[in-house]
User: Which sequence fits this backbone?
């Protein structure tokens, strides 16, 4: 049996990662708003910390360091806010529509990078961003507008800030350390809000939250492997496979068939960004791979 090339391995793991991310979205959607967003935020962050903790403990003491404490605290609360907004958006919007709006994060990263990092974007990137924003407007057309779309765009904004601020963390910091401290710093406020807005929760709902946490971490791990195998530019066309996955799952599992204008809007969002390489969906950036538009799930 022929050995797979590094690019082929990268493509395979990125596909698996995006599928894992899509399954995380499905788990959140299946909650159907049965619990408060604050409960979801706290339980998911707690489970993520518990899952990551054994791997963090295996690192050398120097690798466990927080790095930039203030930036890590800010990113922790961005991921907390983003996860709550993800739940709201996925509860009320079709999977494909919500994810299309999540993909606005890479578009927002361009002006944010220029503002916070003093980067000067190329003209082609500016044009691609403007085209993508037009796609967002097509998806958000007034006759189909839903207030949950504001939550989806809010998630995109928190994710874009989360992605941009990763540049202010130590370049050598392991992704496990980044995920661990992000989760730890998000727990105090998450716990306080969860207690205030606590409501009865079933075992099935806890299992769905756990599945969301596991699938999100699965995305992170797969992305790390993928981008260590191949250059970002060589994986460009696979970057947006997650949107394909959620569209198919939405059609088969939830009878959510995107109409023509929504499909056009989605294409306007993702196609111009493909050459930009490092701008991605997510939930889900880290210090080892390109920033992604995943729902934070980070």
Assistant:
């Amino acid at each position: 049996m022929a050995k797979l090339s590094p690019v082929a391995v990268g493509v395979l793991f990125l596909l698996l990662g995006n599928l894992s991310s899509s399954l995380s979205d499905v788990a959140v959607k299946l909650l159907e708003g049965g619990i408060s967003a604050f409960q979801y935020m706290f339980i998911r962050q707690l489970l993520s910390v518990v899952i990551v903790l054994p791997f963090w403990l295996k690192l050398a003491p120097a690798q466990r360091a927080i790095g930039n404490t203030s930036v890590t605290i800010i990113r922790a609360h961005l991921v907390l806010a983003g996860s709550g907004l993800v739940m709201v958006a996925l509860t009320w919007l079709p999977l494909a529509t919500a994810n299309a709006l999540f993909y606005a994060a890479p578009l927002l990263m361009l002006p944010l990078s220029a503002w916070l990092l003093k980067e000067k974007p190329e003209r082609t990137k500016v044009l691609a961003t403007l085209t993508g924003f037009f796609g967002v407007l097509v998806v958000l057309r007034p006759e189909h507008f839903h207030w949950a779309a504001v939550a989806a765009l809010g998630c995109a904004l928190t994710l874009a800030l989360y992605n941009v601020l990763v540049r202010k963390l130590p370049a050598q910091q392991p992704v496990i350390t980044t995920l661990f401290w992000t989760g730890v710093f998000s727990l105090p406020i998450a716990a306080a809000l969860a207690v205030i807005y606590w409501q009865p929760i079933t075992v099935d709902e806890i299992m769905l939250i756990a599945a969301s946490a596991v699938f999100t971490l699965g995305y992170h791990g797969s992305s790390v492997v993928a981008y260590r195998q191949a250059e970002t530019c060589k994986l460009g066309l696979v970057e947006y496979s997650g949107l394909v996955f959620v569209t198919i799952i939405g059609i088969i599992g939830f009878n959510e068939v995107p109409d023509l204008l929504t499909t056009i809007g989605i294409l306007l969002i993702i196609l111009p960004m493909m050459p930009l390489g490092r701008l991605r969906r997510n939930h889900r950036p880290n210090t080892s791979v390109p920033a992604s538009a995943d729902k934070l799930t980070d």
